[in-house]
Every structure is written in structure tokens, then in C-alpha cells.
């Protein structure tokens, strides 16, 4: 057998299949100590995701990602107390969000959140300071204030006054309080907490990589986070959880009264080559480790609520089974997320902002890591335009 290595830079033979590397598919572009994603595990700083979802709170995971180690009892108590005191946003930022929501009620909540973060940057005394201690302070403030921005937005869109954040609540419970104006029960708070743990970090995903690219220019953290929000807004990334739930609502409506079956709906979608959101993943080929964890918690909540809630999980299970049987494609975490948030009574347009309330920890950890060992991210491109010719 010929084991001679190909000459560097040589073209592959005409019979060789050239890998599709568009979107940097399959390419390793850097290293990180924050997270590992592989076919069998998702690991945050050495802790596997199922272990964290079962045994850690989101506040503890946030500390782990931002500070770099598992917190002691004293450290997490201090962290939570600190977070509670940082949740209020400046009146000028609150009033600007209210004005935008009232004057443009169709504005995308992710765009409003991006604007809120941008406004916060002007009032943050550490905004332009890239020193590690300043970066950590900014990270903690953003983590604390983003749920408040989300709540101001949603309450205003509903024609209600915003509620003040509650310093006595954990991050997940306070997020639900800010959105709904109701103190969540222990089950709802726990399920939201688990979902935030699952969404907190995922190595060089599109929004995190966008944040790192911006950070690599030595731009500030708020600018990098705004870039991350812009990337996460897209339906091929964070917006998939919204689109997954909208798809299920379409199926439920079209199949109401026996007009058609779920099987019929799916066959039609395949023929029309409709993109079915919440399925498939660039990395996970045998299923997203996070999806069954969140489905289990969401289904538990739905069963407690009753048949009108459980029907959505029954519908989701049918869709999932057909996708696996006919397309061999597994659901990703966005599929059960859409179902779970819907059963929790959260308005669909706020699903992706809630994603930000979790992923801000991963983004900030990566921005700090990039700044601490920086080289500007500047890849090359293969030119495919016309040959050089005279003007």
C-alpha cells in the first residue's frame, strides 16, 4: 500500500471527494479551556452537562464559566448576593427600551435586547477597560442586567408596567419574575434553571465565534456581546427554538379536526423541502446530549399541568419519530426548549432573549479568554471572482 503523503498544496485527484468546508465546517480554528463538545459529551470546564443539569444550579454554572472554578459555599453565596444587587438598570436605559417598544411594537425582542446592551455600555465605568478584573466586573453586570432588559421589553409589549428585579431570587426565578410579573413556583423555577444550564456554553458556535472575532480586534466586551446577540438572533442559530414552536403550532392547526394527520403534514413538508427547525446539528451526528435532558423536565411539567399541555409533547414526539425514521435526523436542544418554554407560558418571541440570559456567561468567558491571549482572527478566503483584466 502506498503510504506516501501528498505534496503540500497539491490538488486532490479528480476522483477524491473534496470536503465541504463552507462555514468552517470541520475546521479547528483555535483552542479554549472553557468547553469541549464531542459526539459523546458536552463539558464545561471539566464538568459534563448531565452532571451539571442534575446537580448544579445555573448560578453555580455561571460562576464556573466566568470565574473558572467550581464555587465554594461561601463563594456562591457572595456571588448570588452580588448579582442581586446588580440587577437594576439605569432609568435612561429602561425608559429608552419602553419608548422603542411602544413606538415600534413589532420590533424584534432580540434587537431591543441588543440595543439595551449597547446603551448599558455608555454607562459602564469599565467599558473600555480590558484588564481581567474589569472584564469580570462587566461580565457580572451583564449577567445580572439582561433579565431586567428582557422583562422591561415584554411587560411593555403587553401594555404593563415593568417590575423591579427581585434580589432575593436566583437568576432563573428572577428571569421568570421579570417577564411574567409572577413569582414562579419551585417546579417552574427549577425547569428554567436547567434550561439555562444547558444553554450556557457550547464552544465555538456562531455567536460565540462572532464575539471572539470582535474581541480579537481589542474591541470592548459590550461590542462583542452585541455581535453575539446579532448572530444568535438568526433562525439557524438561537432563533431555532422560536421557529420550532411555530412549526408545531402550524402542525396542530393544520391537523385540527382530522383535516390531515401528522404523517401527512410531514410528508408534505418533505416534498416541499420545508426546513424543519429544531433538528440536526453541525457537530452532533448521533443526537444532541442536551435534548433528552430538557425534554424530560419539560414533559414532567406538562404532565403536572394537564392534557392541554401534554398534547404538545405528544405532538413533538410524533414529529421527532418521523424525522428519525425518514431522515435519520435527531432533534437538537431547541426542539424541546420550544415546547418547554411554551408550556411555561413564555411568549414565543422571548425564547431567544432567554437564550441570551444564559449564553451571556459563555460569551463573556470566551471574550475574556480571547483578550487574555489574543491574536486577531483574520482567516483567508479562496477567490472565485473574474480573472484580473484592465479597467
Question: How do the helices and strands line up, and which of them pair or pack?
Answer:
Elements: E1 35-37, E2 42-44, E3 47-48, H1 49-55, H2 58-67, H3 73-86, H4 91-103, H5 109-123, H6 132-157, H7 171-180, H8 186-199, H9 206-216, H10 221-232, H11 240-254, H12 262-271, H13 290-305, H14 307-327, H15 334-343, H16 351-372
Antiparallel strand pairs: 1-2, 2-3
Helix pairs in contact: 1-8, 2-16, 3-6, 4-5, 4-6, 5-6, 5-10, 6-7, 6-16, 7-8, 8-13, 8-16, 9-10, 9-16, 10-16, 11-15, 13-14, 13-15, 14-15
Mean pLDDT: 91
Query: What CATH architecture label of the largest domain applies?
Result: Orthogonal Bundle
Summed up, the helix count is 16
Extract low-pLDDT stretches: 1-14
CATH C-level class of the largest domain is Mainly Alpha
Note the overall shape. Answer: globular
Helix content: 55-70%
Q: In the CATH scheme, what's the topology name of the largest domain?
A: Citrate Synthase, domain 1
Radius of gyration: 22 Å
Head-to-tail CA distance between termini: 53 Å
Q: Please provide the count of β strands.
A: 3
